[in-house]
Amino acid sequence: MWQVRVAPCGDFDNHPFQSAHFGVEPLAAAMGAEITGVRLPDLSDDGIASLKQALWKHKMVYLKDQHLSHGEHEEFAGRLGRFAVDAYTQGVPEHREVHPIIKEADEVTPSLFGGGWHTDSPFLAEPPSVTTLRQVEGPPYGGDTTWTNTALAFRHLSETYQAMLRPLRVHMSASNNFATQAKLRGEPIDFGDDEKREQGLKGSFHPLVRKHPETGEDALYICDTYAVGIEGMTTHEAKPIIDFLVAHTTQHAFTCRLRWQPGMVCMWDNAATMHLGPNDYDGFRREMYRTTTAGGAPV
């Protein structure tokens, strides 16, 4: 007799990181925290180091009422590490590392940037480590972002399943995403031939269980948008594993959800999370700006 599936329990350790430079208030049991009592441009070098530790602990952190300019955003993000090459967007004038993500109120589209569960640009040989996103204008409701803790999800697999996954390498590619976007828009599939698109299609093979470069924590490196196969397996062999891991990782218990406010800044750790931004705010303008911090090859 099969048991009814129930929500995971135990091992939810999101107690607040302790810092002398700011306050920390956890958002959910699985992950996420608000950083309080500080404005990002005012952080000392020690404060930046402490902020990084809070990020590794909580996987996603956010601050309200920051209202950063493009210059402040770029300068702060530069203190987190060198900038990554963005796979999709271009920077704003005079601030090449600050990338706009804007949907106008009269824009109606069946497909939205970031609308499926994903980690940022995993098809690159060296995917970005930290993504920093800020809101200038947003809808009165809708436009939330949800994250899931892929390290916590890995810990809630059986030891037998964990051992099976450890040697595997996942193929991350944008090929399925390109085809899906074209189908939704009713356009022919045009993969083009520019260098970025070619790399997106070719993709990269990465460990399915990756070790965090700063903490050594193990996490699933899985993605509903970009995981297209597993090295050495046929499509039919790999798909059930990928489908199960996506379903397992995106259980509500492993997630947190952020309701954005103008002036808010959010950072997340791509080595230990997936995220999702639904297309649920037609009729309202949403203006966001993003920077990405470079990361090394997953191990």
Structural account:
The chain is α+β, with helices and mostly antiparallel strands and 299 residues long. The chain has seven helices and 15 strands. It has helices spanning 45-58, 70-80, 150-155, 159-165, 175-185, 195-202, 235-249; strands at 23-26, 33-36, 60-63, 99-103, 130-137, 145-149, 169-172, 204-207, 209-211, 218-220, 227-230, 255-258, 265-269, 273-276, 286-292. The chain has a seven-stranded mixed beta sheet, with helices on one face. It starts with 22 loop residues before the first strand and ends in a 7-residue tail after the last strand. The model has no long low-confidence stretch (mean pLDDT 93).
Rg calculated over all Cα atoms: 19 Å
Mean of residue pLDDT values: 93
Q: How are strands sequenced across the largest beta sheet?
A: 1-2-3-13-5-15-4
Which consecutive residue ranges, at least 5 long each, have pLDDT under 50? none
Question: What is the approximate shape?
Answer: globular
**Secondary-structure element string:** EEHEHEEEHHEHHEEEEHEEEE
- Structural class by SSE content: alpha+beta
Topology, please?
Blueprint: E1 23-26, E2 33-36, H1 45-58, E3 60-63, H2 70-80, E4 99-103, E5 130-137, E6 145-149, H3 150-155, H4 159-165, E7 169-172, H5 175-185, H6 195-202, E8 204-207, E9 209-211, E10 218-220, E11 227-230, H7 235-249, E12 255-258, E13 265-269, E14 273-276, E15 286-292
Parallel strand pairs: 2-3
Antiparallel strand pairs: 1-2, 3-13, 4-15, 5-13, 5-15, 6-12, 6-14, 7-8, 7-11, 9-10
